[in-house]
Amino acid sequence: MKPIVSLFIICFSLVGFSQTVDTYTYTVKGMDTLKLDVYTPEDILPDERLPVLLWMHGGGFSIGSRDFIDDAELCKYAAQNGYIGISISYRLLRKGTTTGFGCDCPKEEKMETFKQAAIDYLDAAAFVVANAEQLKIDPRYIIAGGSSAGAEGTLNAVFMREYFVDHLEKYQDVQFAGIFSCAGAVVNAQYITKNNAIPGVFYHGTSDGLVPYGTASHHLCAPEKPGYLILDGANVIVDKLESFEMPFYVHIVKGGGHEVSAIPFTELDKVFGFFNQTVLGNEVIQTKVIKTKRE
């Protein structure tokens, strides 16, 4: 792979903390030039290599951007707390479509959207791994993360690459060390095995009407609708991880809807603390937090 070239660098201060933001093009697909923003501590040592949060924004595969304020703030937080934060763009394949991504969107189109999102994510990860030295990241410690559609994209990339990807050799050097999912689901949790299970943080509402908390149809579509597609949400995924004695932290909101997909800024210390203990420290921690939605 050719050396990467920074498109721009922005330097700024946050309460005495300085960092740089570099933007790179990781691939071009048709009319889509896909980029990623890399948030790096300015005071990183020359030989230092940090774990990385590789983040995929939400938006129903039709809206959103890698530099949306919340996604940018998350990556800034990562860079302030011992990580490099990377936020990626990907193809918004449902943008401008007449059926959107709900119950009128045919199941086949939903599956193709999930597939291409997973591939875009894996392409971004492959770019990061190939340029690890220049980006100053440790490729052994890539935390995959996303919210809503981004969580679906990352979960499918992490656990179902064998299902969605035709040329697996392209990603043979890509390994994920952890997963951070805000209201995400995987197409089929049976693809989560002892061999590919990794420590995970999950936030989900039990009454999510878009991305199911358990095993249910996407957007809760009725069986007769074109978009009827069964997915496995956080409850099923965590059960799989628990059966493999894999570390997890799950935050369940009883009665919570899709608003739980929002980045949990007030709990990021717990999120990154979990990854520090499990991914970096090899501890086995299994925590379930159950709260009830306030009316």
Automatic annotation (TrEMBL):
Keywords: Hydrolase, Signal. SUPFAM superfamilies: alpha/beta-Hydrolases. InterPro entries: AB_hydrolase_fold, CarbesteraseB, GDXG_lipolytic_enzyme. Residues 31-152 form the Carboxylesterase type B domain. Residues 1-18 form the signal peptide. GO terms for molecular function: hydrolase activity. The keyword Chaperone does not apply. This is Carboxylesterase type B domain-containing protein. Pfam families: COesterase.
